[in-house]
Specification:
Radius of gyration: 18 Å
Number of domains: 1
Order of helices and strands: HHHHHEHHHHHHHHE
Distance between the termini: 37 Å
Largest sheet: 2 strands, antiparallel
Length: about 290
């Protein structure tokens, strides 16, 4: 039986909150929020929280600012593709596609020589990916009828993997709060500018009070709390190992969709969830060996 480490608990908590975020975001977008307004207000609110906690956004090296800008750009694309994938397709479909995140992250990390995946990790990723495929198969004849939404969902997974790698570089010299206080405002400002037309046409009076409450939950839980836990986990185990836990997310996201959005869950999806969990358990036995970076 593998030993459960604190970092495993952190990663599992992050994945549960992210899975919930897919359903919360879908609900918010269906109840009065424009997609870009939602992202701009959400990340603007989180930026205020982290700047207040950090009290400074200074980084230690000039190169760190370049990496922070790259991370902000990746997060900008990530959030645009995320909200529009939810606009075009279902929450469960988006959650299922996020299962591709660990594979994308490992491929990017390997390409840049940041990590050297072990054979055990490759096997674990394969098992989990097979589980993701079963979950997708059990969702009812394919991912969805909207190819555009599926492609945007896949882009969300890839950009999140690249963002995680950029953050892991910053974690060598900076705390999670300092990184969030720097990267989130760098992303929030341009997305707010992009959202200006939608700010003008959104009917704020039509947004019910409970939708604002759900919005507050989407900021504090899946964004503020997860940022702190995720960054610490990246620093301990590296992006490829950390994002392997994302293979839990498709199944958990479907569970939330069943409970909160009345979507159906099939026996095939349950079987896929078992494989997803099995892949993560397999990866617990051995951590990735980092490659030397010059």
């Amino acid at each position: 039986m593998p030993r459960i480490r604190p970092v495993d608990v952190m990663l599992s908590s992050v994945v549960v909150l992210w899975a919930l975020n897919v359903t919360l975001s879908k609900y918010i977008l269906e109840h009065g929020f424009e997609p870009l307004v939602y992202s701009a207000m959400r990340y603007g609110s989180a930026s205020v929280v982290f700047v207040g906690l950090a009290r400074t956004i200074r980084l230690t090296r000039r190169l760190a600012y370049v990496v922070a800008l790259a991370a902000a750009a990746l997060l900008y694309v990530n959030q645009i593709t995320f909200v529009y994938s939810l606009r075009l397709t279902t929450a469960s479909t988006v959650g299922l596609i996020f299962g591709a995140t660990p594979i994308a992250t490992a491929a990017i990390a390997f390409a840049f020589g940041l990590e050297r995946p072990s054979r055990r990790f490759a096997a674990a990723a394969s098992v989990s990916l097979a589980g993701v495929a079963l979950v997708a198969l059990g969702s009812g004849g394919g991912l969805s009828g909207n190819l555009g939404g599926d492609l945007l969902g896949f882009c969300t997974a890839v950009t999140w993997g690249a963002y995680s790698i950029a953050i892991s570089v910053l974690m060598r010299d900076h705390s999670p709060i300092r990184i969030s206080a720097t990267v989130l405002p760098l992303m929030a400002i341009p997305i707010a500018l992009t959202a200006i037309p939608q700010f003008g046409r959104m009917d704020y009076g039509s947004v019910e009070p409970w939708v604002w409450a759900v919005f507050a939950l989407a900021v504090l839980g899946p964004l503020v709390i997860t940022n702190l836990l995720w960054f610490r986990a990246l620093d301990e185990v590296g992006p490829s190992h950390a994002t392997l836990f994302n293979n839990f997310q498709p199944f958990v996201a479907v569970l939330f969709a069943v409970v909160l959005l009345s979507e159906r869950l099939s026996a095939v999806q349950i079987g896929g969830g078992v494989l997803i969990a099995g892949g993560v358990v397999l990866a617990w036995h051995r951590q990735l060996a980092p490659a030397a970076v010059e």
